[in-house]
């Protein structure tokens, strides 16, 4: 990652950095008396050590924007950019680096939703790291343009709205989205409450770790049909278009999820209404009619609300 960010490469030489460094040294020895090779070795060693020190600082950071990147578990693509921009931001507050980190989080999450992490996209990010020389405003524009090319709003919205969201999107990205939605509700809707911390969200204890709960359970075929107001929606239609959509998913602890099992919404809502999660407390407001029934209309309305939140939360123009 240090080599990618700080050395010259043209195609895929970064995949074999040790060989490239050896080659550079051998060329310097061949073309000079050896003094240039010694100078290069000394400089490269010192800068590599500095990159290790920066990486350690990033790993131990408790800044929210870094914790968000850790939670997405997609660091490899962004190490060169993070290391180099941290080094080049000489301010104590690291405000420019913070902007880059916020865009890294946006790109990382959008990659997960749109499945657009192509090799060309990764190489472009590596190239931006290599070419960066301290012009933060230009880099911000380049990263915003990167989003438009590789994971734009249209694709992002389309994939958030896809009816098989739960089956297509990685579970970690689903949980991350619902964590951020939970915190949005806590800070934007009365009564205001403290956000769920990174430590709470990442808790891995068997009973309290967070999972994805289907509001209408996945084994919906145990019923012959789903009643929707005065009409009848076939079970096949419901499975294909609503069961696994984002509007039918909610964050829940493993033990609480298991306790709800495959109960109907009216029964589940008694537990939701006493839950510590605002994303569960609000479910009754989507009931149709309120609050006793959960159906395709409820799911569609909740999908719209979550997608609207996501488009605003992961908008590069807000950085």
Features:
319 residues; 4 strands; two-stranded antiparallel ribbon; mainly alpha; two-stranded antiparallel sheet; 17 helices; elongated; single chain
How would you characterize this protein structure?
- This protein is mostly helical and 319 residues long.
- Helix content is 61%, strand content 6%.
- A two-stranded antiparallel sheet has the order 1-4.
- Strand 2 and strand 3 form a beta hairpin.
- It is elongated, with a radius of gyration of 24 Å.
- The protein starts with a helix and ends in a 6-residue tail after the last helix.
- The model has no long low-confidence stretch (mean pLDDT 91).
Task: Give me a quick take on this structure.
The chain is mainly alpha-helical and 319 residues long.
Can you lay out the helices and strands and say which pair or pack?
Elements: H1 2-6, H2 17-31, H3 35-60, H4 64-72, H5 79-88, H6 95-114, H7 119-131, H8 136-150, H9 153-161, H10 165-168, H11 171-188, H12 198-202, E1 210-214, E2 225-228, E3 231-234, H13 235-243, E4 249-253, H14 254-260, H15 265-272, H16 278-281, H17 296-313
Antiparallel strand pairs: 1-4, 2-3
Helix pairs in contact: 2-3, 3-5, 4-6, 5-6, 5-7, 6-8, 7-8, 9-17
